[in-house]
Hints:
Helix content is 37%, strand content 32%. By secondary structure, it is of the alpha+beta class. It folds into 2 domains: 69-78 and 195-236 and 266-275; 80-192 and 238-260, 2-Layer Sandwich (Alpha-Beta Plaits), CATH 3.30.70. The strands form 2 sheets. A 5-stranded antiparallel beta sheet has the order 3-4-2-5-7. Strands 1-8-6 form a 3-stranded antiparallel beta sheet. A hairpin with a 5-residue loop joins strand 3 and strand 4 (142-156).
Amino acid sequence: MSDLTNPTAAPRTAPPSSPPTEWRPLARPAPRGAWFGAVVVLVVLAIGAIGLLVGRSTRAGAAGAVGTITVTGSGTVQGVPDTLQFSVGVQTIRLTATEALTANDLGMQNLENTLLGRGLKQKDLQTSNLNIYENTNSHGQLTGFTVDETLNVTMHNVDEKGILAKAGGAIEAAARSAGNGIQFNGITFSITNQGSLLAAARTKAMHDALSQAQQDATAGGTSVGGVVKIIDQVNQQVLPFTYGYAAMTSSLHAGVPLEAGTQPVSVQVTVVYALN
Length: 276
């Protein structure tokens, strides 16, 4: 039975319809040129930011930079030598090499015994030279052989009273023992114990360096700060006292007078100071 014939039946409604479909256009990719331009802009901005930071850092470093000044100071003090050294030896000429060597050995032994008898110690004697060579005439003919040997002698504490006289006596006795065959190569004085002298010279050198730095800094409108670097150089002059053979033999009867005198000990310092 249809609904029209049944007045009590609920009215029938039509089924819901589907919502209408909304049509949207598809998104189109951005042009290639637009992406490239955006990348370029970002790179430029990044470079600008880095440049700004570097500029600030450079200005800050320049503001905190400290200048320096380099000067060289010198200091010299005088000291009395405490060590004496000389070379003494024997030369012998004979017809044969064996005869020359035997005779020279005897002369050197006498020389060494004389020095030891004058208070020197075995450790203060050192052989420094031994030569054996032929002698020939103007025609190249063999006339004999020469042997010479040398001792280096060191005497300590010569700055003490009486030691120089002792050294002079040892030299004279050595010359007498060697006779006409003596070989004497001079005397040198030196300062072995330089500790206190170096300290005094170094203090003078540092004062000299600081004085120079202050003068230069004042002239430049600034002042000297702390020490950045120090380079130290020590220079001791060893003064030779040469006694030639002729002078030696002519003075033997009067003895061998020796005077140590004084000797300079110098220090140079190169100092780098900071400038305020």
